[in-house]
Write a structure and sequence with these properties.
This protein is an alpha+beta fold and about 180 residues long. It contains 4 helices and 8 strands, in the order H-H-E-E-H-E-H-E-E-E-E-E. Strands 1, 2, 3, 4, 5, 6, 7 and 8 form an 8-stranded mixed beta sheet that branches. About 5% of the residues have low confidence. It binds methyl alpha-D-mannopyranoside (MMA) and calcium ion.
């Protein structure tokens, strides 16, 4: 009799445990985790992104994130939360000033993608076709059919140039703003 009661009790516990671990609650938790991670990233960027870390080029300011790697969409959120947007350098002078500061071997997200139309690279900030694109030889190649976000990368001591890469990859990133937020 005691065995039967404890067996029933175990079954009851098992059913309830399973109920609380449905795929719904697991995906809900990972969504929450994503948001927490994103918020952490924003706070870290704000901490390191004081005015001193913005690079003034002409009328623009660029912020180069070197402490944390995130996917393209998180990079977008972080730059927006910093009061700017994921960078889209518009000319060689802007690009050169950025390139000097990048660390070789690293990859940096830019605010350019062909997520809306394959093969048509748009600046995220304006939604318009990106006018200044400097590709690595052979790029963009939409490798594996899943490369829709543009990064800066350098290979084997070659200069940093653009490459289309999978948006879900974690990389460093570059934000841009008209005026840096000195309050952070
Ligand atoms: C990697 C990746 C691609 C790039 C190729 C170039 C294998 O994929 O970085 O985006 O186009 O390398 O060889
Ligand atoms: Ca590519």
């Amino acid at each position: 009799m005691f065995k039967l009661v404890s067996l029933l009790l175990c079954m009851w516990i098992a059913v309830h445990l399973q109920g609380s671990l449905t795929s719904d609650s697991v995906s809900g938790n990972s969504g929450r985790l994503d948001r927490v991670e994103n918020q952490m990233a924003v706070l870290q960027s704000q901490q390191s992104g004081g005015s001193g870390n913005f690079l003034n080029i002409g009328s623009k300011y660029f912020y180069i994130e070197e402490n944390q790697k995130v996917n393209w969409h998180s990079a977008l959120n972080i730059c927006t939360n910093m009061g700017g947007h994921l960078a889209d350098p518009e000319n060689q002078q802007e690009l050169n000033s950025i390139l000097q500061r990048l660390i070789r071997g690293r990859h940096y997200w830019l605010g350019i993608s062909d997520l809306a139309n394959e093969g048509l690279f748009r600046a995220q900030n304006t939604g318009r076709r990106a006018t200044f694109l400097k590709w690595v030889y052979g790029e963009p190649n939409n490798y594996g059919n899943y490369e829709h976000c543009v990064e800066l990368k350098s290979q084997q001591n070659r200069p940093f140039l653009m490459n289309d890469a999978p948006c879900w990859l974690n990389s460093y990133f570059i934000c841009e703003t008209g005026a840096p937020n000195n309050d952070e």
